[in-house]
Specification:
Number of strands: 24
CATH class of the largest domain: Mainly Beta
Order of helices and strands: HEEEEEEEEEEEEEEEEEEEEEEEE
Mean pLDDT: 88
Structural class: mainly beta
Distance between the termini: 92 Å
Oligomer: single chain
Strand content: over 45%
Shape: elongated
Length: 288
Amino acid sequence: MRHQLQVLVAAALVLVLGYLGYVLLFGPERRAELVVVDARGTARRVDVDGSVADLEAGMALDRGQRVQVGADGEALLGLGPSSRLRLDAGSTLRVLAVEPSGVRVELEDGRLHATVRPDGPALGVHARGRAVFAEDADLAVGVDDGGGVSVRADRGGVRLDGFGQVDALDAGETTWALPDRPAVRGPAGEELLLDVRWPEGAVARGEVDLEGRTSPYAAVRIGGPGEAVTTRAGADGHFRARVPLSEGENDLRVEARDPLGRVASDRHAVERDSTAPAAQRTEVQWGR
């Protein structure tokens, strides 16, 4: 009897060890986690039911939840052991999926910077009907109020969806896109280009056509004596805007901004003298 009991115990032990081994080898993978690493200023989590909580280190984020970062805030999220997502001030992110193979998020407003390492889940970032996917890369994604989307690959390559013929970026490349406009790919610069062609001498008319060049699809704002004038650069970066002038000296300021948050500005005094002879206008056709 004692021998039979020992055999049963040994058999049960073998079954338990076998089951544990099976789970370790063939059981479901561990679920990826998206957690808050750090938060500064105004940063909060908004649940599906609308309840709100301030972000705290260690807080887990799941499908349907949003991260909202105020104008004075910043949030750092962890994805696996070494991958990170940083949300800049004024950004909103919604979690679409947290799965073993990867995490997908939607950038609704603002900018995020991601460091994705191969020892963690892959990352998919959706923005305004477009998406970027990374498995081992450093990248930045930005959106603006006018529907502009920009992606920059700083290290490694990323795959793109919804950008037309631009389906991938290598390190050191950027793409810019607008609704119903073709995406543009080019080198990633640290600073935003802005070159304004200011008029020479006094202007007789009550308005002036300002022309210049900046990054593709950048938003351009020109402030002067009246209401500010806004426009968009074309696919080649060229822009033109008609700006009203007051009699005398007009202090004009041109500011260009791209979806990645880069800003460049230039300032110039333009004089209007209605008694001066009107200069001959030259029509220039800019690229689109």
